[in-house]
Amino acid sequence: MNQRIVPAFLLAMGLFTLTGCSSPTVITLNDGREIQAVDKPEFDDDSGFYEFEQLDGKRAKVNKDQVRTIKEL
């Protein structure tokens, strides 16, 4: 029985560590709309857009000039 506990514990700790890495974010646009993202958006200097994953799993982009604030939840 002890042989099953150790791998299960290690698996649980690994999953816990991975979930701790992402923090949901709310992006507030200049017009007042709010967009929820799975993690902090990445800014692409070349295009001038923030790129992020929405809660439904779809990738999205928003122009830097449209963003008022980006806050972690």
Tell me about this structure.
This protein has 73 residues and is an alpha+beta fold. 27% of the residues lie in helices and 38% in strands. It contains one helix and six strands. The protein has a three-stranded antiparallel β-sheet with strand order 2-1-6, with no helix packed on it. A hairpin with a 4-residue loop joins strand 3 (42-44) and strand 4. The longest helix has 20 residues, at 2-21. The protein is elongated, with a radius of gyration of 18 Å. The mean pLDDT is 85.
Characterize this entry briefly.
This protein is of the alpha+beta class and 73 residues long. It has 1 helix and 6 strands; from the N terminus they run αββββββ. The strands form 2 sheets. It has a 3-stranded antiparallel sheet, with no helix packed on it.
